[in-house]
């Protein structure tokens, strides 16, 4: 029975998929480190605004908004650089480079003497994050089999969310000056492991005319050995030849992209749905609230400790991302996006009503409600809007423009990250928490309607298809 389970094509640890899983796990070490940087800020930012700040300078609300939103500026830079360099340098070289700015983040945090140190550090963290959100989905889509691609791609957000939870805990309980030394172990380990165990994808090597290296890479990721049976090797090599033929056809050559390729019917359809997905991802507030979770609970009327509530939400967020990895290749992307966007819209509406009535009535005996509603919101947001974002971005575009169009879409997403991180604390300050939540709920419900009417399923789609 166990042997039958291992033989299933969608089993991550079966013989063919083993090295694909290993590569996915290794490149996601930097995602965990990036998540720690995001999660650590939430409880730490609140400390920065109190007399107990570990720094010699307290922050006001505008400085807080800039420290938070600097991540978005860095993300745009990281997206742009990765999109430009991946086709020239290859995935492996770009993956190595993104370890550097994240390492610099913790150096800036440790030596912070003014708010500018923190802003620059967050911007550097954003460069790494921007690189992750371009490089990882594209790279995974190029070496993973279709029946495990969704699972492996959603591991990106599972790893980020693991890091966010660790960051919440470190920010709450660990000394400000100890955290950098702990976290720096991760980017250093990542750099060494990627250097020795990751190869450029066969698709990239074929596009560069390096056919022998492409074949070696294909055999590596598909775990094809010289001592395998001749029939198994012949089947694998036939698959490689089909890939090579598809990528070297005149109409499919990735280095011969024209302006016309960006205006095909398939491309325009991809742009429209990508726009809705990006808007839902950011204006649902799921990512933004992660950065300001402690402040949100402090203003929600709950009497629970904000830091404890934040850690609970971090655990729920991690669970949501894990569920997404289990279900993405089972139920498909469309079903998860519908459940996610509809559930988030309803949760935000309920949270807005609770915080509104807290201002009128004494609801202290219901202090658990904000944590419960936000848990549902974050869980549902992570099973679709967050985890499926990068899977869909890669799968919905035609082959020739996939890397460029995905890069542009993620750049726009990162720009909205900056916008949301910048205005969210200001909206809470000037509009109040209820109106802020209702506004996000309305936008998310609009996106739910668009998914219901127009989003097509991409599960099992070949990366050689349009």
UniProtKB/TrEMBL annotation:
Record-annotated Major facilitator superfamily (MFS) profile domain positions: 23-459
InterPro entries: MFS_dom, MFS_ERD6/Tret1-like, MFS_sugar_transport-like, MFS_trans_sf, MFS_Trehalose_Transporter, Sugar_transporter_CS
Keyword Transmembrane attributed: yes
Gene3D superfamilies the UniProt entry points to: MFS general substrate transporter like domains
Keywords: Cell membrane, Membrane, Sugar transport, Transmembrane, Transmembrane helix, Transport
Subcellular location: Cell membrane
Membrane-crossing residue ranges in chain numbering: 21-41, 64-86, 93-111, 117-140, 152-170, 176-198, 270-290, 310-328, 335-357, 369-394, 406-431, 437-455
Protein name per UniProt: Major facilitator superfamily (MFS) profile domain-containing protein
Predominant place of localization: membrane
Pfam families noted in UniProt: Sugar_tr (PF00083)
GO MF, one annotated term: sugar transmembrane transporter activity
Membrane-related topology note: Multi-pass membrane protein
GO CC, alphabetical: plasma membrane
């Amino acid at each position: 029975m166990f042997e039958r389970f291992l033989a299933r094509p969608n089993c991550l640890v079966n013989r063919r998929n083993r090295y694909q899983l290993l590569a996915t796990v290794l490149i996601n070490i930097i995602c965990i480190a990036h998540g720690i940087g995001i999660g650590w800020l939430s409880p730490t930012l609140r400390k920065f605004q109190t007399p107990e700040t570990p720094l010699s300078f307290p922050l006001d609300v505008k400085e807080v908004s800039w420290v938070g939103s600097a991540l978005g500026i860095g993300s745009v830079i990281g997206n742009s650089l990765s999109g430009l360099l991946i086709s020239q340098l290859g995935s492996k070289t770009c993956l190595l480079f993104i370890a550097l700015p994240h390492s610099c983040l913790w150096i800036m945090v440790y030596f912070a003497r003014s708010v500018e140190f923190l802003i620059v550090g967050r911007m550097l963290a954003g460069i790494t994050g921007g690189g992750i959100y371009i490089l990882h989905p594209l790279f995974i889509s190029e070496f993973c089999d279709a029946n495990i691609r969704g699972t492996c791609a959603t591991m990106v957000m599972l790893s980020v969310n693991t890091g966010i939870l660790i960051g919440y805990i470190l920010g709450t309980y660990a000394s400000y000056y100890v955290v950098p030394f702990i976290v720096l172990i991760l980017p250093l380990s990542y750099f060494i492991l990627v250097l020795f165990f990751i190869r450029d994808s066969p698709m990239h090597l074929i596009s560069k005319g390096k056919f022998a290296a492409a074949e070696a890479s294909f055999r590596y990721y598909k775990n094809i050995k010289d001592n395998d049976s001749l029939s198994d090797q012949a089947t694998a090599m036939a698959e490689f030849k089909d890939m090579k033929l598809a990528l070297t056809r005149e109409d499919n050559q990735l280095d011969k992209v024209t302006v016309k390729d960006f205006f095909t019917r398939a491309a325009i359809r991809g742009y429209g749905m990508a726009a809705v997905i990006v808007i839902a991802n950011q204006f649902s507030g799921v990512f933004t609230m992660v950065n300001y979770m402690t402040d949100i609970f402090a203003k929600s009327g709950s009497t629970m400790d904000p830091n404890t509530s934040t850690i609970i939400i971090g655990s729920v967020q991690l669970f949501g991302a894990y569920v997404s990895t289990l279900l993405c290749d089972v139920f498909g992307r469309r079903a998860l996006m519908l459940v996610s966007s509809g559930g988030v819209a309803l949760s935000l509406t309920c949270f807005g009503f609770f915080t509104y009535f807290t201002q009128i009535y004494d609801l202290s005996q219901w202090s658990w409600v904000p944590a419960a509603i936000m848990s549902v919101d974050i869980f549902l947001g992570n099973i679709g809007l967050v985890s499926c974002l990068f899977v869909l971005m890669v799968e919905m575009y035609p082959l020739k423009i996939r890397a460029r169009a995905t890069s542009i879409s993620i750049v726009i997403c990162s720009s909205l990250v900056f916008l949301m991180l910048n205005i969210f604390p200001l909206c809470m300050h000037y509009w109040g928490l209820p109106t802020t939540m209702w506004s996000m709920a309305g936008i998310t419900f609009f996106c739910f309607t668009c998914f219901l009417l127009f989003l097509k399923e991409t599960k099992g789609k070949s990366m050689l298809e349009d």
